Amino acid sequence: MSEELKFPVVAHHRIIVNAEGRDDAQTKALFEGFDLVAPVTEANTSSGGKYVSYSLSVRFKDRAEMAKFDEQLKRVPGLKMVL
Questions:
Q1: Omega of the bond prior to 39 within 30 degrees of 0, cis?
Q2: Residue 13, Cβ density class (10 Å: 0-12 exposed, 13-18 middle, ≥19 buried)
Q3: Whole-angstrom Cα distance, residue 61 to residue 17?
Q4: First-to-last CA distance in the chain?
Q5: What does the DSSP assignment read for the chain?
Q6: For residue 46, which phi and psi values (nearest 5 degrees)?
Q7: Domain annotation covers residue 64
Q8: Number of structural domains found in the chain
Q9: Closest residue by Cα to residue 13 from 31, 29, 25, 1
């Protein structure tokens, strides 16, 4: 099944990073230029304390903006996974 995205579209993300050496302010600053429907918030810490997750929701106006967001994700300090 292949559906075409209809813009604007809201996407929800969970970002998982290494807890050690993380920089909350820098992570939040990376997404300041986007239309955040829900702000970047710390969601959970793993039971062992090794990982921290952030959640955020972004409204994208087009595919180019989605690509720009993807580039910003790659700059998150200690990034392990994006859901």
A1: no
A2: middle
A3: 27
A4: 21
A5: ------SSEEEEEEEEEESTT--HHHHHHTTTTSEEEEEEEEEEE-TTSSEEEEEEEEEESSHHHHHHHHHHHTTSTTEEEE-
A6: -60, 160
A7: yes
A8: 1
A9: 31
Q: For every one of its 83 residues, what pLDDT tens digit does the chain have, with 9 covering 90 and above?
A: 568 899 999 999 999 999 998 888 999 999 999 999 998 998 899 999 999 999 999 999 999 999 999 999 999 999 999 99
Asked, for residue 41, whether it belongs to a domain, the answer is yes
**Residue 3 belongs to some domain of the structure:** no
CA–CA gap between residue 40 and residue 53 (Å, rounded): 10
